[in-house]
What we know:
Blueprint: E1 4-7, E2 12-13, E3 16-17, E4 21-24, E5 43-49, E6 55-60, E7 76-79, E8 95-96, E9 104-110, E10 116-121, E11 124-125, E12 134-137, E13 154-158, E14 165-169, E15 176-182, E16 188-195
Antiparallel strand pairs: 1-4, 2-3, 5-6, 6-7, 8-11, 9-10, 10-12, 13-14, 15-16
Amino acid sequence: xxxxxxxxxxxxxxxxxxxxxxxxxxxxxxxxxxxxxxxxxxxxxxxxxxxxxxxxxxxxxxxxxxxxxxxxxxxxxxxxxxxxxxxxxxxxxxxxxxxxxxxxxxxxxxxxxxxxxxxxxxxxxxxxxxxxxxxxxxxxxxxxxxxxxxxxxxxxxxxxxxxxxxxxxxxxxxxxxxxxxxxxxxxxxxxxxxxx
Length: 196
């Protein structure tokens, strides 16, 4: 429909209060039919639109950074087409920090089978502490693989022209990381150690 989803850390668009994510009409005006549930200071870093039109967002926000009366998971949310929270998205507590650390989501990519790849910095996803920095979720947000990437922070994104999933480490990440690639059924298809 030509509309744009814009994410970040902001409090206003064109003089109107809006936080985390806003949808714009093709002429740049705000689409007033879209109202995301975020409170001030919620930062949204990643957006992915599922085939059914529901919108996955991830970032640097906690369960306390939703509008009054709304509760939700930490750092990942699924929105309906009007911006309201999709309460059927079973992400539990969401992405949680490791002890003495912080957590955030930087990347969300969708696989052709509907599974969701989430990348960033986190020590656990809900109660799953073995998944750190990169996790693959089923469309209903339950974890879908038994293997995990090591503790170096990685980003995952999908190249829109080739639909390939690309992993990228930050410049501050150095040493080695283990790369695990799974097929659509969750089976390990490729494993390698790479220098980062």
